[in-house]
Structures are given as C-alpha cells and as structure tokens.
C-alpha cells in the first residue's frame, strides 16, 4: 500500500497526548499494541496501521483524527486501502460497538458503496 503519512506529526501528537495525561510508555495500556511498538512510533521508526492507530486513539480517549490530520490539513491514510477497510479497522478498535452493530454498519456501507458505483 502506498503510504501518505506525516510520521513526525504522528510521533509528536502521540507523545504530546500521552504526556498530557502524565503517562509513561509503561503506563499507556493499548490492547494489542506493545510498549516497543509505541516507542517506535514515537521515534518515527515505523508507520502504524489503521488498527494500531485506532487502538492508540481509544486508549488516549482522543478522536482518531487527532493522529491522522497532517499539518497541511490533509487526512492521512493508506491511499490504496479501500475506504471500507479503513472504517472497519476503526470499528473493530472501538470496544463499545457490539459485533452485531459493527457488522450492520459495514453491511450498510458495502451496500451504499456498491449502489454508488452503479450511479
């Protein structure tokens, strides 16, 4: 996938929000994301996927867009990933959404995208 991401901005936003809550990397508990992964992200040594970013945003109680909006106002994403896959990653990271609700949302989106393609 082609990446279109400002890793320096992502790194600084993650660090800033973590520190604003007085959390060390050890203190920040992100389900499915190791401390070493968080550390690499903060050091700009890798590009996290949408699922990791969604989990980080949830753990810090911040909107996902907090970490995805680059300085020039451009939304950061993997441009080759279908939109539904990106939305699915965010839905899967939100523990407050039941599996049935998540599946219903994704089914509706799939139908909408399919119908829009025929217009």
Describe the structure.
This protein is mainly α and 119 residues long. It is 55% helix and 3% strand. The protein has six helices and two strands. Strands 1-2 form a two-stranded antiparallel sheet. Helix 3 packs parallel to helix 5 and helix 5 (83-93) runs antiparallel to helix 6. The model is unreliable at 70-79 (pLDDT under 50).
Helix vs. strand class: mainly alpha
Element order, helices and strands? EHHHHEHH
- The shape, in one word, is elongated
Number of distinct helices: 6
Calculate the mean pLDDT score and round it. Answer: 77
How is the main sheet built?
2 strands, antiparallel
Strand elements, count: 2
Strand content: under 5%
Amino-to-carboxy terminus distance: 28 Å
Give the helix proportion (percent range): 55-70%
Strand order of the largest sheet: 1-2
C-alpha Rg (nearest Å)? 15 Å
Low-confidence stretches: 70-79
* Oligomerization status of the protein chains: single chain
Element layout with pairings:
Layout: E1 3-4, H1 7-20, H2 35-42, H3 50-59, H4 65-68, E2 77-78, H5 83-93, H6 99-117
Antiparallel strand pairs: 1-2
Helix pairs in contact: 3-5, 5-6
Brief synopsis:
This protein is mainly alpha-helical.
Which tags fit this structure?
119 residues; mainly alpha; two-stranded antiparallel sheet
